[in-house]
TrEMBL record:
<feature type="transmembrane region" description="Helical">
    <location>
        <begin position="166"/>
        <end position="185"/>
    </location>
</feature>
<keyword id="KW-1133">Transmembrane helix</keyword>
<protein>
    <submittedName>
        <fullName>Mitochondrial calcium uniporter regulator 1-like</fullName>
    </submittedName>
</protein>
<keyword id="KW-0812">Transmembrane</keyword>
<keyword id="KW-0175">Coiled coil</keyword>
<dbReference type="Pfam" id="PF07798">
    <property type="entry name" value="CCDC90-like"/>
</dbReference>
<keyword id="KW-0472">Membrane</keyword>
<comment type="similarity">
    <text>Belongs to the CCDC90 family.</text>
</comment>
<keyword id="KW-0496">Mitochondrion</keyword>
<dbReference type="InterPro" id="IPR024461">
    <property type="entry name" value="CCDC90-like"/>
</dbReference>
Length: 186
């Protein structure tokens, strides 16, 4: 685009300098030929012819430059369209890759979550089983202790009664012996 602008400027400068030269040349001619009206008309006709030629040249230059600009513009539009399509393809590719990565990560997280849920459920089941086993053991131990305590109480009562019997028997025996000695001495 910059090159086209430079070309256009250089062409415009060439055209302007040509116009300036033609105008200078015409002015010289006009000053030299100020003699008769006829010559003046001829000179005017020549100038008009030269101006018409310059106009034609300008139109031709403008048209050819316009055609060149149009062709360059079309080239740029085609390139721009191609680049735009490439960018769209890259964006679609990146978007697709990102979605795929996101879905893979999402499924991996779901798998980890379900695995952790299963482990947690297994641990809960294990804890409940251990707790139930512990409760059974405690209950059995409580029963054994209660049974042992009851047996010990029974044995203690039995020994107590036996001791009371032996004590009562010993007291009565001692009393009997003491009464026997007392009768013997009296």
């Amino acid at each position: 685009m910059v090159i086209l602008n430079q070309k256009r400027k250089s062409k415009d400068e060439i055209t302007v300098s040509a116009l300036v030269k033609i105008t200078d040349a015409n002015m010289d001619i006009v000053y030299k030929d100020m003699v008769t009206k006829m010559q003046q008309e001829v000179t005017v006709q020549q100038i008009m012819s030269q101006i018409a030629n310059v106009k034609k040249d300008m139109i031709i230059l403008e048209k050819s430059e316009f055609s060149a600009l149009r062709a360059e513009n079309e080239k740029i539009n085609v390139e721009l369209h191609r680049l735009k399509q490439q960018i769209m393809d890259e964006v679609i590719k990146i978007r697709t890759d990102t979605k795929l990565d996101f879905n893979l990560e999402k499924s991996r997280v779901k798998e980890l979550y379900s695995l952790n849920e299963r482990k947690l459920l297994e641990m809960r089941t294990e804890m409940v089983a251990l707790h139930a086993q512990q409760d059974r053991a405690v209950t059995q131990t409580d029963r054994k202790i209660d049974t042992e305590v009851a047996g010990l109480k029974t044995m203690l009562e039995s020994h107590k009664l036996d001791n009371i019997k032996y004590l009562a028997g010993s007291v009565f025996t001692c009393l009997t012996v003491a009464l026997g000695f007392y009768r013997l001495w009296i």
